[in-house]
Amino acid sequence: MSKRMITRQRFSKYLYGLGLLAIVWSINFSGLNKQFFSAKPDEVEDKIKDRVDSVLHLMTLEEKVGQMTLFTSDWDVTGPTMRATYKADIKEGKVGAIFNAHTAAYNRELQRIAVEETRLGIPLLFGYDVIHGYKTIFPIPLGESSSWDLAAMERSARIAASEAAAAGLHWTFAPMVDIARDPRWGRVMEGAGEDTYLGSKIAAARVKGFQGNDLAATNTLVACVKHYAAYGAAQAGRDYSTVDLSERVLREIYLPPFKAALDAGCGTVMTSFNELDGVPATANRFLLDEVLRKEWNFPGFVVTDYTSIDEMINHGYSADQTQAAEQAVNAGVDMDMQSAAYYNHLIDLVQEGKVSEATIDEAVRRILRIKFMLGLFDDPYRYSDEQREKSEILSDKNRQAAREVARKSVVLLKNEKQTLPLSIGIRKLAVIGPLADSQLDMIGAWSGAGEARHVTTLLTGIKNVIGDRVDYSMGCPVDQDDRSGFGAAIDLAKKSDAVVLVIGEKAYMSGEAASRSDITVPGPQLDLARELKATGKPLIVVLMNGRPLAIPWLADNADAILEAWFLGTEAGPAISDVLFGDYNPSGRLTVTFPRSVGQVPIFYNMKNTGRPMDPNNKYTSKYLDIPNTPQFPFGFGLSYTSFAYGKPQLSSPELHSGGSVQVSIEVTNTGKMEGTETVQCYVRDLVGSVTRPIKELKGFQQITLKPGESSNVQFTLTPDDLRFYDQEMNYRAEPGDFRVFLGENSAVSDYVQFTLK
Ligand code: BGC
Predict the structure, then answer these.
(1) 43 or 383: which carries more pLDDT confidence?
(2) Band of residue 81 on the pLDDT scale cut at 50, 70, 90
(3) What is this structure's pTM?
């Protein structure tokens, strides 16, 4: 008999002991998931609903509140340590979900307590931040978004889910879909950049990757889209700071990626730490009730971000934890992560009549529904699979997939005189810089259960290609003013044919609670770059960072620049593939690189203003000391080959309701290598009842062309693509003139124009 069957039997046996109701219930569970996925979606929902109600009917108020409570396991390197009372809490049915507990064996043990030692045996839900991989670590999400390759992003989420599910996990706190227009904010690294259209596509791809087609499959996780909402608009780029936006900007820029994730089936939503228009997101009825539940009909459950219920006291919105719990639950928050506010107060609040039992029931229904969909009532241990944990986690196949997406994420920012690719026959290569051999940094922030020791660094990656023809010198640290290594680095450069200088930020400098007011390359690294430049050797800069950096000196003086983010487990081989031309770089920025922090916020879809920049007129919108243009615009990235664009063509100068126009352009590979180009389509609405941005991304296509090959790339636009929130907040397209720009990045200037009738 297989282990799984034994556990299932034991589980059923326990249920039988609970009496007739439970017997009926457990019989109903068995085979439920098989029925689910052959049935129509409505029938599935009806079946789940019946089962959920049959469980709810058995539950005490205490047990219901338990399902609404999520605690961390406080897992650390030496083993799990929990709240002192955790086992008692689980055993008494006071906790329905645990996060930061993983590995098949450990989660199986906790699950056993819930299933075998609680009155009703309701299985626990195990959550974890599987952000860019579980053990096999993929590029940080901002880096991966630079691939613009939705299938690749779906695949990496798929692999992450598959590894995590084998290790006993059910639920990932991802994707993070916060639009980020301020590179000071450290959490820029966790999202898909600044654009709503692209961010929405990526949100959907990641949800599909995590959840697959079948939540009950043992290699999928339920996703949790976060942080709802507008967390990325934190004032001054300071994490957790206040957010104050117009409803129009909220709906047009910040909300669509959430909607896209939910349309892709995302099962859960996490609230954000920030307030919005004076009301913390965690008790914001507009966000949670009006938009999420009523407009979008979201059937899943809402969890808080960490202690955000408690934090409403600091916000000045709740007098104490009791009031905070009342406000959160009545606004529509179903599960309390880590505040213990529900744990401490919900029962009293119900007894005092401040929270209705119907509200509690609704929250518990939503949570149980997800547990049913995961198949946990069918087999609570289905996700803890030691066998698969051994065979699949960090498998060669997974590492190979990580290398493929990592190299697609590299963005070539500069390549003077074809400095790159390097010749594999190079006599001597100097690799210099504090990040070249840093496993700890290359794995990036939020790296799940990933271990630095599994990372192949860039130095190792290069050695694997050219052996002992590479020498390494650290030069200096990232974050201390120590220049004692400059001399050795300069000597090495002088002896070599080219220098690969690997500099940037340390991994801890981006991610949560990692805002920076100065977004230049930190420490003595730039001075090192200047000294190396003075040797006259070709200077190839590989940047590692979790946010756009201001790099004016490097942009002017380096011979080549590769933006390599933090690429994860296979960072080294992936970057070497690009350096030596085994992979022709195809990444494109998904976030604007400013010239200086003084331009922030700067993003491609800004408004024109009443006094657009005119170099000959002082009284126009500009700076005295720097141009308005960014260092590198959204959508930018070079290739080892070159692409020539023809003139954009339009199928008709008019677009009518119910109709469409086709816009097309001829793209030719005019260089000597096969390469992949991302053709981008932007629209400008010239006059609106509210002003419109100077450009908005409406489509993109990736094409791979051999040298000399051409392709006609076509986009179809319908009135639906031209909608926005008008003055009365109706989401519609207004008749008038529209420009369509087709080109290689958001700075494209060639356009065609049509009229929407
Ligand atoms: C972060 C979330 C994360 C949660 C659980 C919070 O501090 O903001 O993104 O999912 O912790 O680890």
Answers:
(1) 383
(2) low
(3) 0.95
pLDDT at 264 over 50: yes
The mean pLDDT of 636-661, rounded to a whole number, is 98
Residue 411, judged by CB atoms within 10 A of its CB (0-12, 13-18, 19+), counts as: buried
Q: Are 512 and 187 in contact (CB under 8 A)?
A: yes
Amino acid at 18: L
CATH of 643-756, one of 2.50.20.10, 3.40.50.300, 1.10.287.380, 2.60.40.10: 2.60.40.10
Assigned token pair, 256: 């669509």
Distance 109 CA to ligand 1 centre (A): 24
Domain ranges of the chain: 409-599, 643-756
Is the confidence at residue 28, as pLDDT, over 70? no
Catalytic residues: 305
Q: What is the pLDDT of residues 201-230, one digit of tens each?
A: 999 999 999 999 999 999 999 999 999 999
Q: Provide φ and ψ at 672, rounded to 5°.
A: -110, 0
pLDDT the model gives residue 350: 98
Cβ of 173 less than 6 Å from ligand 1: yes
Mean pLDDT taken over the chain: 93
Name the closest-CA residue to atom 12, ligand 1: 129
**Cα 176 to ligand 1 centre (Å):** 10
Closest Cα partner for 421 from 149, 589, 671, 678? 671
The pair phi, psi for residue 189, each rounded to 5°, is -65, -20
**Could you tell me if the CB of 305 is within 6 A of ligand 1?**
yes
Q: Whose CA is nearest to atom 10 of ligand 1?
A: 173
Identify the burial level of 97 via C-beta atoms within 10 angstroms of its C-beta, where 0-12 means exposed, 13-18 middle and 19 or more buried: buried
What is the spatial distance between Cα 738 and Cα 715, in angstroms, rounded to a whole number? Answer: 15
pLDDT one-digit tens code per residue, 372-392: 999 999 999 999 999 999 999
Quick check: CB of 311 below 6 Å from ligand 1?
A: no
Distance 178 CA to ligand 1 centre (A): 13
Mutate to test the pocket of ligand 1, among 100, 128, 273, 306 (most ligand atoms within 8 A of CB): 306
User: 37-46, 312-321, 351-360, 490-499: which range is least confident on average?
Assistant: 37-46
Q: Is 306 a pocket residue for ligand 1 (Cβ < 6 Å)? A: yes
Kindly report, residue by residue over 601-621, the tens digit of the pLDDT: 999 999 999 999 999 999 999
**Does ligand 1 come within 6 angstroms of the Cβ of 692?**
no
3-state secondary structure of 244: coil
pLDDT in tens, 714-752: 999 999 999 999 999 999 999 999 999 999 999 999 999
What's the confidence (pLDDT) of residue 475?
98
Q: For the purposes of burial, counting CB atoms within 10 Å of the CB of 351, is it exposed (0-12), middle (13-18) or buried (19 or more)?
A: exposed
Phi/psi at 374 (nearest 5 deg)? -75, -10
The count of C-alpha atoms lying within 13 angstroms of the C-alpha of 571, restricted to the half-sphere facing its C-beta, is 35
- Identify any residues that bridge with 336 across adjacent strands, giving them in sequence order: 69
Ligand 1 center from residue 167 Cα (angstroms): 20
70, 305, 309, 338, best to mutate for ligand 1 pocket (most atoms within 8 Å of CB): 305
Cβ neighbors of 82 (< 8 A, separation 6 or more) are 71, 73, 74
Architecture of domain 409-599 in CATH? 3-Layer(aba) Sandwich (3.40)
Calculate the alpha carbon distances from 61 to 26, 92, 95, 552 in Å.
22, 12, 13, 61
Q: 10 Å Cβ neighbour count for 665?
A: 22
Residue minimizing CA distance to atom 2 of ligand 1: 305
User: Between 256-263 and 196-211, two packed helices, what is the crossing angle to 10 degrees?
Assistant: 30
Per-position DSSP letters for 265-310, written without gaps between them: T--EEEE-SSEETTEEGGG-HIIIIIIIIIIT---SEEE--TTTTT
How far apart are the CA of 24 and the centre of ligand 1, in A? 39
